[in-house]
Amino acid sequence: MENPKTMIKVDELQTSFYTSKGEIKAVDGVSFDVPTGKTLGIVGESGSGKSITSLSIMRLLEDPGKIKGGKITFSGEDLLAKSESAMRSIRGNRISMIFQEPMTSLNPVFTIGDQIAESYMIHEGLSKKQALKKALGMLELVGIPSPKDRLKAYPHQLSGGMRQRAMIAIALACRPELLIADEPTTALDVTIQAQILRLINNLQDELGMSMMLITHDLGVVAETCDYVAVMYAGKIVEYADVNTLFHSPKHPYTVGLLKSLPRHDIDQEELEVIKGMVPRPDDLPDGCRFAPRCPFATKLCEEKLPTLDTMADKNQVRCWIYTDQWDGPEVNVKNDYGTAQSK
Amino acid sequence: MTTELLKVSNLKQYFPIKGGILGRKINDVKAVDDVSFYVNAGETLSIVGESGCGKSTTGRAILRLDEPTSGEISFNGKDLLALNKREMRKMRKDLQIIFQDPYASINPRQTVRQVLNEAMEIQNVLPKEKREDRMMELMETVGLGAHQLDRFPHEFSGGQRQRIGIARALSVDPKLIICDESVSALDVSIQAQVLNLLKKLQRELDLTYLFIAHDLGVVRHISDRVIVMYLGKIVEIADKKSLFDNPKHPYTKTLLSAIPVPDPTKKKDQIILKGDVPSPIDPPTGCRFHTRCPFATDKCKEEIPELRTSEINMAAGHQAACHYIEEIESGEMTPNY
User: Fold this and answer.
1) Could you give the angle at the alpha carbon of B153 between the alpha carbons of B147 and B159, nearest 5°?
2) Span of the secretion signal (chain B) (predicted)?
3) Is B188 helix (H, G, I), strand (E, B) or coil?
4) Where are the domains positioned within chain A?
């Protein structure tokens, strides 16, 4: 990909949970990069490892989770080599994060103003008075009505949409270079979601930050992202620019996902489904992880894990169909998915 | 020939708010405020709307899981609100509900066999010796295996658990199933499986669905007709095609335009609403949407618009509760964003 500058580069990241049942590979060799000023969407269903990937970048994993291997380079610096105190000065300052549920990530006993001001006091060494003044500016920026009064409000006094705006104000207070948004609008109603997505988009343009958007909603991805990584069972199965991903998806999982989505803007008679379910993380298939559910799977797929290969159009896909070693009949995944499925 | 299976008239559901030292009632949450509609046998009627619009409350009121404040509910010609508790319990054989969270709605200490058996026992649908075969048949019907009958809910995934919920509802041969956000908690690939299953069951068993959901993609897929609710009131009701292709109420239009489309090349004019949904404790006077509506006038602040149809370009059965359907349609009124 012809990206002039890379904001963050993740290389062969491996994150595992060590439980009494043994090692659970939540993220298993994930590599991608986010070009400066662009938005990368990470999509996947529950258990695909998308949230663990973002927590690994922030180094916010809790026991028994551990980063087992790989490299994370942020603006040229190796994040995994940093001390905890160095990490703390990056978090909330140069890399910020927004979570799904603002009620659980805001502190209920401090006012919104205090919580925004805190970042300025910690990262910029401002006095409380100066910090509160800047906090007021942030509330205005994120479009909270009567910001002066809201500065003194507690989280429970705000609606869901307002709380999410307050979270964004906290996250963006120190003008981060990278914003990681983990399902930022999932808990919100659609009309409020539209407000928040527009806000995030506008602020990104204004502040020139790079963004990682983690979501399960393909509609949100289509509307906000420049590039998309599709994750399945701890691995990236496809990485492409947003137009290619939606118009000529290559991986059978991506195709299945798009075909199983009920659309409000077009009529569909029967939804295509992806049969079966996601494999258990402690019992992953040996070959391609999607093979047990894939309508095209051959013996090769069941036995050997394909690599994430770069295609002629610079996009990446992890599937045997696109390699010389493919041992099945010639297929067009997008067009033949339905017929292959019904066999 | 279509027959009306369920008819809801002027349904109101107010929840009292108690306060003060004496715990007196100080106000009401007007969750559902004067709602009327009918469901034809064999069709799927959906109720959509955002949180707090009263869609789930409506579903619960029909089953009398919460006693409605006032109104009439008639099912198959019988007045549901006139029944006593015992009669109502019997009635629920015909009226089943599938909830959103399959983790919370199935007893974790019962095996699937016990769950299904209990439902059949209470409603006395089959003699004991025939239940075994019926249970196996039910498991097949919902796409599970008969060998899974003796498992506990925790041994199933979310999608499978929702199938158990469906099997339980089907076990008593209901006529109407209320699906309250039944697929909302599921991943897309699993959601599609359950939606297809619900459609197949409807065809085979002649079921009627009242489908309550917030996801308009799901609603377009499953419904015959759609009701849009906002703050306890119906703002629009129409057959699926009219509602999605020719919406008339400004709220329906905004709702449709706010949904992200999974196609990056489809650029659309998004209408972004100002502000939040007002509180149902003290809802706005007149049209409840007037505080956020780009077309609102003084009339909207004062007069409550009735559901009505219009001469211009509205299919039979299509109604919207707006004073200005014609003016907005003709372009005489322009939005004020």
Assistant:
1) 85
2) none
3) helix
4) 108-173, 251-342
A263/B191 CB distance under 8 A? no
Q: Helices B158-170 and B128-141: crossing angle, nearest 10°?
A: 140
- Residue A30 to residue B140: CA distance in whole angstroms: 39
Distance from CA of B256 to the nearest CA of A (A): 8
The answer for residues whose C-beta is within 8 angstroms of residue A263's C-beta and 6 or more apart is B217, B220, B221, B261, B262
Contact between chains at B221 and A274 (C-beta distance less than 8 A): no
Domain end position, chosen among B190, B225, B247: B247
Answer yes or no: is pLDDT of A3 > 70.
no
Mean pLDDT of chain A: 92
Please state, in angstroms and as integers, the Cα–Cα distance from residue A10 to each residue in A35, A163, A245, A273, B292, following that order: 12, 31, 21, 32, 44
Can you tell me the mean pLDDT for A109-123? 94
Q: Which of A197, A237, A264 to mutate to test the interface with B (most CBs of B within 10 A)?
A: A264
Characterize the bridge pairing of strands B4-19 and B176-180.
unpaired
Asked whether residue B40 falls in the same domain as residue B188, the answer is yes
Q: Is B331 within 8 Å of chain A by CB?
A: no
Q: How many CB atoms lie within 10 A of CB B231?
A: 25
Coil, strand or helix at B213? strand
B39: β partners: B6
Query: Are residues B136 and B159 located together in one domain of the fold?
Result: yes
The answer on B221 and B275 residing in a single domain is: no
Is the same domain home to B17 and B96? yes
Q: What is residue A280's DSSP assignment? A: P
Beta-sheet pairing, B24-40 with B44-48: unpaired
Helix (H, G, I), strand (E, B) or coil at B314: coil
pLDDT at A75 > cutoff 70: yes
Residue B96 shares a structural domain with residue B221: yes
Interatomic CA distance for residues A141 and A165, integer angstroms: 10
The set of residues, in sequence order, having a beta carbon less than 8 Å from that of A86 and lying 6+ positions away, is none
Q: Distance between CA A212 and CA A227 in Å, rounded?
A: 10
Distance from A63 to chain B by nearest Cα, in Å? 24
Which residue, of B247, B262, B296, is where some domain finishes? Answer: B247
User: In this model, does residue B248 exceed pLDDT 90?
Assistant: yes
* Helices of type H across A30-71: 50-58
Domain that holds residue B261: 248-337
Q: What is the DSSP letter of B308?
A: B
Q: What total of structural domains would you count in chain B?
A: 2
* Interface pTM, i.e. ipTM: 0.85
- Tell me if residue B336 falls in helix, strand or coil: coil
